[in-house]
Hints:
By secondary structure, the chain is α/β, with parallel strands linked by helices. The chain has 8 helices and 12 strands. It folds into 2 domains: 5-116 and 230-262, Rossmann fold (3-Layer(aba) Sandwich), CATH 3.40.50.720; 122-227, Dihydrodipicolinate Reductase, domain 2 (2-Layer Sandwich). The mean pLDDT is 97. NADPH dihydro-nicotinamide-adenine-dinucleotide phosphate (NDP) is lined by residues 11-17, 36-40, 70-72, 74-75, 78, 93-96, 117-120, 159, 233.
Amino acid sequence: MSRPLRLAVIGATGRMGRALLDLLKDDARFELAVALAASSRLGEPVYAGEDGLRFTREWPAAAPEVAIDFSGPAGLGAALAHCRAHRIALVTGTTGLDQALQQQLDEAARDIPLLRAANFSLGVAVLRRLVRQAAAALPDWDLDILEAHHNRKVDAPSGTALALGEAAAAGRGVSLADGAVYAREGTTGPRQHGSIGFAVVRGGDIVGEHEVWVIGPGERVELNHRATDRSIFARGAIEAAHWLAGRAPGAYDLDAMLADRLGSPT
Ligand SMILES: NC(=O)C1=CN([C@@H]2O[C@H](COP(=O)(O)OP(=O)(O)OC[C@H]3O[C@@H](n4cnc5c(N)ncnc54)[C@H](OP(=O)(O)O)[C@@H]3O)[C@@H](O)[C@H]2O)C=CC1
Ligand SMILES: O=C(O)C1=N[C@H](C(=O)O)C[C@H](O)C1
């Protein structure tokens, strides 16, 4: 068997960080090189009762080969600069990026392999394709996207909802920016034909739910995905890190990985 890949986890004390660390504990393909956090649990052991790696803010002197980020835009921005300077492949699932950060990611992908996904679940990868097909097949029907997440989520609509909006817009050959409606309140007037609306619920411990309604006269198609366990995202990100390490610099996505691993999309 080949040598384990030296891996950094960015956002290691968070909900996703904990899901990653749980899976990585038993994954012999990786050696955890650093578990980065911003302020919580600094100095505590990563694995309770084990006297090994501790949560830290500092990158190690010996650069990891690949990093997985689920921290947030500020954490991602800082990590990106480090990964670019040290030629560390980067997988990121952080959502809520502004345009400036998206541009920094595009620029960094000239120097390092970089894989971004708003959702690392296999089911959502399939859902995106179904949404694109449905939007194309029913071009005159109304299409809205509903999402629900836990009460600690800080960005809305979710990155996944936006990606589903992009899929729907692509199916219709239009730009999401031209048709998106992010809020409805007051006297909105009738629905703008061809628009793509978003509705958001936040509450409790909902892991992540997405629905796409394609609404015609007298009937409706609903395409839904419910995540009930964060390990699905963590597993997808870990597979992505294993696939990405050692690749040529460039911007990659989950579709590229799935096509490479499973063959062309159906
Ligand atoms: N693509 C996907 O499949 C998924 C994406 N996400 C996205 O991942 C991101 C994280 O989600 P979640 O785990 O719930 O978030 P949490 O708030 O639970 O965790 C955030 C983590 O990032 C760390 N952090 C925050 N700010 C910084 C910073 N400036 N520098 C370094 N580290 C920082 C926190 O450290 P500390 O505890 O010390 O503050 C913590 O470890 C979100 O953008 C979310 O939308 C979530 C699930 C799936
Ligand atoms: O913050 C979360 O929890 C999640 N965020 C991602 C998003 O914004 O789409 C993915 C998943 O739904 C969970």
